[in-house]
Amino acid sequence: MELSGEAMGSTFSVVLYGEDRQRMLAAVEQAFEEVRRLDHLLSNYRASSEWSEVNRHASRRPVSVSQELFDLLSACLKYSRQSEGAFDITVGPLMKLWGFYKGAGRLPHRAEIRTALAKVGYQNLRLDPEIRTVRFSRDGVEMDPGGIGKGYAVDRMAEVLRQAGISSALISAAGSSIYGLGAPPGEPGWKVSIRDPKDPQKAATQVVLKNESMSTSGSYEKFFRAEGKVYSHIMDPRTGYPAAGMLSVSVIAPRTLDSEAWTKPLFVNGRKWAKKNKPEGLRAFLCEDRMDNVCAWLP
């Protein structure tokens, strides 16, 4: 059985195996209902979402948030510290400036980039665990859930299916964040291809997922050309410019939240940094932007 639905600006799909069709249908509906709930929590397009409330008010006063959002923001700060700032949910002003929120992209002036950079930096995000509040330490800070939202939603869907007694399912958010729950009948796990970043008709490699996730970030997903250069949507929050040097990064991890979050720093910082700093328990497949198009697993 395969079902799909739209939420969080993406298409979520679920493939399931089982004998009780009604039970599977009910479980999938609960899973999609959970994604719709998260859309109202994490969307930066919905003015009424908790995420948008924080973006609107946290530069003026501490904003009380739910435990769920507080825990998610705490995880984001941890990713930021571990990645030396290559992952940063306060990248919102840069994503807007470069036109990646809703438009096709634009090349901003250097002065504009300097102005936006002054509003970016995870150090400006202050969390108070005692009273569970979020505060921005300067005006203009804006969080962007693009680096973690889909991954978190896929994890929650997997948990909903597990709780409903589903033991075999493949959950995908826009094909870029995937979780393999159990395995299809007679198989060791879910076979998933990682595409060749230069040829969508080819696979660079294939992986098998069983109770683990895989997320991929690629420069081919969203980009534009200007002045003879290609600019992708994967931003280096420290420089204010899209990252260069990589074509795609795929990360396999027990949680989709982790795999999605870590694709960005490995993409931004490159293979040499990734080899030294990749967290334990993660596997990574990197394709570098070179003439020989090198794609290989990190040792």
Give an overview in words.
- This protein has 299 residues and is α+β, with helices and mostly antiparallel strands.
- The chain has a domain at 56-144: T-fold, CATH 1.10.3980.10.
- 32% of the residues lie in helices and 29% in strands.
- It is built from seven helices and 17 strands.
- The strands form five sheets. Strands 1-2-6-7-10-15-16-17 form an eight-stranded antiparallel beta sheet, covered by helices on one side.
- Strand 8 (190-196) and strand 9 (199-209) form a beta hairpin.
- Helix 1 packs antiparallel against helix 6 (149-163) and helix 6 (149-163) crosses helix 7 (256-277).
- The longest helix has 22 residues, at 21-42.
- The chain is globular.
- The mean pLDDT is 95.
Shape: globular
Order of helices and strands: EEHHEHHHEEHEEEEEEEEEEHEE
Class by helix and strand content? alpha+beta
Distance between the termini: 37 Å
Number of helices: 7
Report the sheet with the most strands, covering strand number, pairing sense and barrel closure. Answer: 8 strands, antiparallel
Radius of gyration: 19 Å
The CATH first-level class of the domain at 56-144 comes to Mainly Alpha
Oligomer: single chain
Tell me, rounded to a whole number, the average pLDDT: 95
Give, in spatial order, the strands making up the sheet with the most strands.
1-2-6-7-10-15-16-17
Q: Spans of 5+ residues with little confidence (pLDDT < 50)?
A: none
Label the CATH architecture of the domain at 56-144.
Answer: Orthogonal Bundle
